[in-house]
Every structure is written in structure tokens, then in C-alpha cells.
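hi! just following up on the protien thing from before. the input was this:
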Amino acid sequence: MLKQKRNKLHKFLKNKADWLRKETLKIHKVSAETRLASSLSAVEIFTVLYYGDILRYDAKNTDWPGRDRFIISKGHGAVSLYPALADLGFFDSDELMKVCKAGSFLGSIPDPVVPGFETINGSLGHGLGVACGMCVALKLKKRKEKVFVLIGDGEMNEGSVWEAIMFAGQHKLDNLVLIIDRNKICMLDYCRKIIDLEPLREKFLVFKWNEKSVDGHNVAQLHAALSSIKNYRGKKPVALIADTIKGKGVSILENDSLSHVKSLKAEEVDALIN
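and the predicted 3d structure came back as:
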């Protein structure tokens, strides 16, 4: 019975991820300035967090004190979350076809005016530091909520990220969960050619973190890992390294070293979603 229930959930999450990927493409068709490749690599991560009973949230009361905080530090890659938030009732789905248009609160880089977003992260490297502050505040108030952060591996070139990593380890912020969208491509080339992060796992261990690694497009692996992390009560922050593909689902973007800055033509989107 438990296995059947788990399989049913995984099928549901896979279908939701496929839907979310298609909706992201529709947004890109009307707003070509959105960073499509960066958004597509995080689709399964967003899906499991919001549809897999990982994050605690209230779509009608986004300031609910009992919510888990979720900071999307790679703000340019958050457009794929818009359809999920609309689907879950954070705002009206009619807004999705207005992204980046005059009068819309939905931009190519989200900010706190968007229901469900905690911070603005147009300048990379700040989300994890802000999260550390939130974690300290929650601990001082003896709160049990967790703070989740999504960053890209290219963003980890920023020195402020490593300052935050060291701070979190030093202060045993076990209410902090860092998810790394490791799609291996930054703005202008492969990450390994700019600043090689290897050995990444060992870096976290040295800086007093726990670490897990998963296939970032496998909803079963993601759900198992995040469920375990959600219930974790220990003395260390946790890093989940999600191995992903930039531009996942669009063959002309996948593994293209310049996919970060590339847009699709309307007819190319149509061919993908029809």
C-alpha cells in the first residue's frame, strides 16, 4: 500500500513537472527576455517543493508566521515557478501571459511584490546570506520553520556565497537547506572553465555542513531527499546538490555553453508545446 501511494505521488509530480515545463515555454513565447534555460533546469525542484508537501505555505496569507521561507537566489531562473504559484492560488493565472508587460507585477526577475516571493535577487550572491539572517532570527524566537534557498552553481563564484556557507556552518544553522541547481553552465561558458567548483561535496563537509546529492530531474530522488531533510534535526545546515541540465527539455539549449543568454523564436516554442 505504501509503495502504491509513493508511486502515485511520483507520477503526479512527474506530470506536474511536465506541465510546468510547458507553461514556462508559453511564458517565454510572450516574454522572450525571460531566461528560459536557467528556468527549465529548476522545474523538478520547484515541483517537488510545492506539490510534494515539502514547503509549508499559505497561498492566501503569504506572511503566515508558520510558513517555511523559500529564497530563490538565482532570481533569473525563477520564471518557471510562476505557473505553479498561480495554480496554487497565490495569484490569478491570467497574469501569466502578462509577464514583463507594462502594468504587470511579474517580471523576468521576481521581487517581493509577487505573492510567494520573500526577497529580490537580481544581483547574485546575496540570497544565502539573507537566509542565514532569517535562520538566526527564527532560532532566537525558538521557531521551528526552515529556510530553503535555491542557488545556481554559477552563482557560487560569488565570494559572498562562501562567506554565508562558512557562517552557517560555524553557527550550526540546522534550519537552513541550500539547494544547488547544478546545471554546470553559467552566463558565458561551462562553469568548470570559469571557476571549477570541484570538489564541491568535500567543500561543504569541510565547512561543517551535511550534504546530499541527487539527480535534479528525478522527482522520486528529489522527494526522498527533501522529505528526509525536512525532518532533519541536527547540528548542521544541509546542502542538496541537484545535478541538472540547463535548458532541460529543449534539445537546442541542453548543454549549449551559451544557453543562458539564448531565446527561442515563437515558432520554435510552438513546435515544442504542440
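The mean pLDDT is 95.
The longest strand covers residues 176-182.
cheers
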